[in-house]
Design a protein that fits this description.
This protein has helices at 24-38, 71-77, 82-101, 161-165, 174-189, 196-201, 204-213, 219-224, 228-236, 242-249, 252-260, 272-283, 295-305, 307-358, 378-392, 397-413, 417-432, and strands spanning 12-16, 48-53, 59-64, 69-70, 104-105, 114-119, 122-127, 134-135. It is mainly alpha-helical.
């Protein structure tokens, strides 16, 4: 749509469609803008003063003349501090809130549509160009729709993920919250979250994918990764050094911006007022409602952004986990087998030592410990040894059971069946403890 601006007493501007440009789409857009702006009355929104049609039948409307420059240019030219930029930005937020209360979604908030003019030396931002605005619950025009299927609506660098989706998803006021977040990002660090040229040269599908899926860097991170000269210039435009500006952005301002830029619109500010209140809280050194997302949420977003890589890494991790479990199990079995073998060895040594010390060595002279004399019988040696078992192996029941079973076998060989049963029974009792 071509437009002419003709200042009338330097206070109003005339917008009229040029001959040859009066297609149904252009007329519909023109009418939608006229109706949208005429519904609003806010000091930070350019007002419609009159409307009608020329003698040739071409529609026109007369609106407030805004003699100003882009908000980003104004802030840089006047080297406004971060605080001054935020105070100016809150007025833009208030204007957008007013539009939302009137049921109007701007859908194209960007620096060229937010001009700053001076009233008695005081900077006043004015939101303009509601040409692609959308009304909530009503139609702005009965003319032929100008938003055709698969037509990209808005400016890519400032367009919300749901607006870039073009899937029929209903666009609500949170789309403007996203665009306000991009504008705030640019006011703070001098760049948009996604480079405009890169988006335009990437092709429609890739551009939409980047907007929908790619996570932008936090403002403080973006500033810290700039080339030295660019970072210095950005900081000087805000009357600060690079380290000072990074420190200023970290924390609350980072989180306020990133809350606006959430891909999931349910995690953004619900209203422009919510955003404005958080900025006012920040300026007043009060707690802000923006909070870092939970670790689970960050992991979920990481998985969604890198589905293929995550699936591959999951498969590798699962294979490694299975390998570790199998190796651990085998190692545990080996340790258990080694431990069992060691226990058996110790038990055998204990049994052997007991028989050597209390039975085989029983023929020692009586004056020596455990000696029963040279004429001792096997039966007597066994009887003497059996009385020592409980005291010697009171803390090793399995060894005690093994020795008593062996002595029981010896009694049986000696024909002492009752003693054999008693010894074997005592061994079973020891093993059950």
């Amino acid at each position: 749509m071509a437009e002419q601006e003709q200042p009338i007493r330097r206070r109003v501007a005339l917008k009229v469609i040029k001959p040859g440009m009066d297609t149904k789409q252009v007329i519909a857009r023109f009418e939608a803008e006229r109706q949208a702006v005429s519904m609003m009355d806010h000091p930070n929104i350019a007002r419609v003063l009159d409307a009608g049609a020329t003698e040739a039948g071409r529609p026109y409307f007369v609106m407030e003349l805004v003699r100003g420059i882009r908000i980003t240019e104004y802030c840089d030219q006047n080297k406004l501090s971060t605080r001054d930029r935020l105070e100016l930005f809150t007025k833009v937020v208030q204007a957008v809130q007013h539009a939302h209360q009137k049921g109007i979604i701007h859908r194209d908030i960007k620096p060229s549509n937010v001009l700053v003019t001076l009233h008695d030396g005081v900077p006043v931002p004015k939101v303009i160009d509601f040409g692609i605005a959308k009304a909530l619950g009503q139609k702005l025009t009965d003319k032929t729709l100008f938003t055709q299927f698969e037509q990209f609506i808005g400016t890519p660098a400032y367009t919300s993920p749901e607006q870039a989706e073009m899937s029929g998803l209903d666009i609500d006021t949170r789309s403007d919250i996203y665009s306000l977040g991009v504008l705030l990002y640019e006011l703070l660090v001098g760049n948009t979250p996604f480079d405009s040229k890169e988006l335009m040269h990437s092709g429609l599908d890739e551009m939409r994918r980047m907007i929908r899926e790619q996570e932008p860097a936090r403002p403080s991170t973006r500033l810290s990764t700039m080339h030295q000269g660019e970072g210095t210039t950005t900081a000087q435009h805000r009357r600060a050094s690079v380290p000072e500006l990074i420190h200023l952005l970290k924390g609350d301002l980072d989180w306020i911006v990133m809350k606006c830029l959430e891909k999931d619109r349910t995690r953004r500010y619900d209203t422009a007022n919510g955003l404005g209140s958080d900025i006012e809280h920040y300026l007043g050194n009060e707690p802000v409602t923006a909070r870092p997302p939970s670790r689970l949420y960050r992991v979920g977003k990481l998985v969604r952004r890198n589905k293929l890589a995550f699936a591959a890494s999951t498969a590798v991790s699962l294979a490694l986990a299975i390998g570790i479990v199998v190796s651990t199990w085998q190692a545990a079995r080996a340790r258990q087998a080694e431990k069992a073998a060691q226990a058996e060895k110790e038990s055998a040594e204990a049994v052997l030592n007991f028989f050597r010390e209390h039975i085989l060595a029983a023929g020692r002279p009586e004056e020596l410990e455990g000696g029963l004399g040279r004429n001792v019988t096997l039966r007597k040696a066994i009887d003497s040894a059996e009385s020592q078992i409980g005291r010697t192996f009171k803390d090793r029941p399995l060894v005690e059971a093994l020795i008593r079973y062996t002595l029981g076998t010896s009694y049986r060989l000696l024909g002492e069946e009752s003693l054999a049963f008693a010894a074997i029974g005592a061994g079973a009792g020891a093993a059950a403890v």
